[in-house]
Amino acid sequence: MCSICLTTPAGGVSLMVARRAGKPGQQGNTVGTYICSDLACSLYVRGRKDAGPGARLQESITLEEKIQRTVAHLAAFVAKVTA
After folding, report:
1. By mean pLDDT, which of 7-11, 45-49, 54-58, 75-79 is the weakest?
2. In the structure, what pLDDT confidence band is assigned to residue 3 with cuts at 50, 70 and 90?
3. pTM
4. What is the pLDDT of residues 50-79, one digit of tens each?
5. Which domain holds residue 74?
6. Domain membership flag for residue 39
7. What domain count does the chain have?
8. Residue 63, domain member (yes or no)
9. Is the distance from CB of 36 to CB of 11 less than 8 angstroms?
10. Closest CA to 46 of 56, 35, 60
11. Of 13, 35, 37, 60, which one is least surrounded by beta carbons within 10 A?
12. Distance of alpha carbon 52 from alpha carbon 45, whole angstroms
């Protein structure tokens, strides 16, 4: 399952790893998260790309709330990289 958009796409997810910023990165420290292999999180959340059967759970929140959650998850990953 993608940690950013909470989708399990038919194309799978990949572990995306980034070197941390600053001294930790120079020492080889990294952070990683599972992200849609095709990087189509935005399209999956908005329903503009079919992720396959059972890939998205039915939710009671609005589309805007799903978008905000996706942006927050992405921002959290970036914050870990830059911390």
Report:
1. 54-58
2. very high
3. 0.89
4. 998 888 888 999 999 999 999 999 999 999
5. 13-82
6. yes
7. 1
8. yes
9. yes
10. 56
11. 60
12. 13
